């Protein structure tokens, strides 16, 4: 599957099937710090992604100071 | 897993609340969370004139959207910080959001307003961390615009993660003055101040991002280039690691601070501010933080000009 990481503007290829939770874990992304988007839907950690899927992982952390 | 409210297939699972929601139910949940926060602290009423500080990011635009949905009148205030492409993109998002909904928007460009100092120039001239200079400048302009426009409330999009990170930093350094003022409502302590409120202080930034996404809000996903390595992000990362092991920790950290400890610090809050000798805005010394910053820039520029002459 193709995984687009934002705001890093990076794309990685990952083999399916695997759950969203496992994908985030393998990419070192903590729970609750990114949304996983397929098409116009959000996915929970328990959803399973397949080889042909294309998803966006969008970080939600912002801030300065 | 099923939606906690309607048993439909969920789009989001909130670990801190052990609750899953489909899109329709999530939007109901989010609006109720904000509505409850506003009511719990009597932040404002529909009669108030609210000025909302909007950056183009998910939090402030989500706040503007949900306030309108809840029936409050809110005018946007966008500060163009002069941070290159980041500011240009942010401004475009805010103008699109306001334009599409027919909302009133006030815009102030720091490079052409008052002393004409944008964030990069101030940071370079003073060698302060850009975020520190930025915060001082924002607060000054927020206060000035709220006063000039006759608003009664200034609302900002600070979320639970912002408040938890700020609390962690204030506790780690025992910033008692800051702890005394860290609360979701700051009453106007000077005739030139308006009430300041944070209606999103108990919803996480994941929750505001989900709300913005579900509402189709085109917010700025890119982070401010000056935020790289910022201390607040270090605190957020530490808190998110704890949260991953113990969901709900951030919410308890902030809620219990506000319930049990903040009132004690609030008793130590110093006297109300006086008037700044330079600009007339509220100040805790003879000169306000913004004017001290401007004076520092002027001194360093004079020094540089003298040295190169």
Concise synopsis of the structure shown:
Chain A has 1 helix and 7 strands. Chain A is mainly β and 65 residues long. With 309 residues, chain B is of the alpha/beta class.
Which helices and strands, and how do they pair?
The complex is a heterodimer of chains A (65) and B (309).
Chain A: E1 2-6, E2 10-13, E3 18-19, H1 20-26, E4 34-38, E5 41-42, E6 48-49, E7 54-59
Parallel strand pairs in A: 1-7
Antiparallel strand pairs in A: 1-2, 3-6, 4-5, 4-7
Chain B: E1 12-14, E2 19-21, H1 23-40, E3 50-53, H2 58-69, E4 74-80, H3 84-101, E5 105-109, H4 119-126, H5 130-148, E6 153-155, H6 160-172, H7 176-181, E7 185-186, E8 195-197, H8 205-214, H9 231-245, H10 249-266, E9 274-275, E10 282-283, H11 289-308
Helix pairs in contact in B: 1-8, 2-8, 4-5, 6-9, 6-10
Describe the structure.
The complex is a heterodimer of chains A (65) and B (309). By secondary structure, chain A is mainly β. Chain A is 11% helix and 40% strand. Chain A has 1 helix and 7 strands; from the N terminus they run E-E-E-H-E-E-E-E. The mean pLDDT of chain A is 93. With 309 residues, chain B is an alpha/beta fold. Chain B has one domain: Rossmann fold (3-Layer(aba) Sandwich). Chain B has 11 helices and 10 strands. Chain B has a 6-stranded mixed sheet, sandwiched between helices. Chain B has a two-stranded antiparallel ribbon with strand order 1-2. In chain B, helix 1 (23-40) packs across helix 8 and helix 2 (58-69) crosses helix 8. Classes of the chains: A mainly beta (65), B alpha/beta (309). Chains A and B meet through strand 5 of A and helix 5, helix 6, helix 8 and helix 9 of B.
Features:
heterodimer, A: mainly beta, Ubiquitin-like (UB roll), five-stranded mixed sheet, two-stranded antiparallel sheet, 1 helix, about 40% strand, B: about 300 residues, alpha/beta, Rossmann fold, six-stranded mixed sheet, two-stranded antiparallel ribbon
